[in-house]
Amino acid sequence: MSKRIPIIAGNWKMNNTNQAAENLIKELKPLVKGARAEVVVCVPFTAISTAVKATKGSNIAVGAQNVAWADSGAFTGEISADMLVELGVKYAIVGHSERRTMFGETDETVNKRTKQAIKKGLVTILCIGETLAEREGGSMEAVLKTQIEGGFSGIGANELKNIIVAYEPVWAIGTGVTATKEQAQDTILYVRKTLAGIYGEQTAQTIRIQYGGSMNGGNVDELMAQPDIDGGLIGGASLKAVDFSKVVNFTCR
Ligand code: PGA
Description:
Layout: E1 7-11, H1 18-32, E2 38-42, H2 48-55, E3 60-64, H3 81-87, E4 91-94, H4 97-102, H5 107-119, E5 123-128, H6 132-136, H7 140-151, E6 163-167, H8 181-199, H9 201-204, E7 209-212, H10 220-224, E8 231-234, H11 241-248
Parallel strand pairs: 1-2, 1-8, 2-3, 3-4, 4-5, 5-6, 6-7, 7-8
Helix pairs in contact: 1-2, 1-11, 5-7, 7-8
The structure holds 2-phosphoglycolic acid.
């Protein structure tokens, strides 16, 4: 099995003004110095400049929470990859379940955004995940397969180094109900097998897959001890420096 570098990314969602962003990063920097994992904070568009400045010279990279599929033009409310790259953004979340459920994001738009992001040199964090009804109703695997095949459509194996998958069961996001380590491992293994079906087993072993959904300092160790879990996408626990640093500084693996 190839060695995959763990990656812990904070997803601030619609939180933190510029002042709050600066304060949070200032507090976070010394706490995550020397982390073994790649550390990312995905901040609101308005806080990107502040975050890039505040993280300068540290091991924290800055990500955005979405990215447009077009280069430029009549796309009111969208932010282009060029705009993000110019500011120093390195990562972009695409297809978060909140965007899928509240803002009409589909596998097709997720795919278009992902292609554009990687074309412009951004590392994409491509989110997938099932609802509770889908899990309990037995359609989870079919749902995830559709999301993966749609999200990765037309993307070549040589581009996969710039894509990270975030498996986030919708029922675990912001609920305090984390998937058990067995549920997370089993489902992420299924995600990896599905990717292997497209790209082959060897290539699938190189793709980093994060778990997301109420991950925090209390459960990170057992989740990160699972062989197929390569990191986390952290919402609530990324909003306080001490909480986020506990996730970043997990003690296994
Ligand atoms: P949560 O959010 O950690 O607050 O559950 C995770 C996410 O939405 O990425």
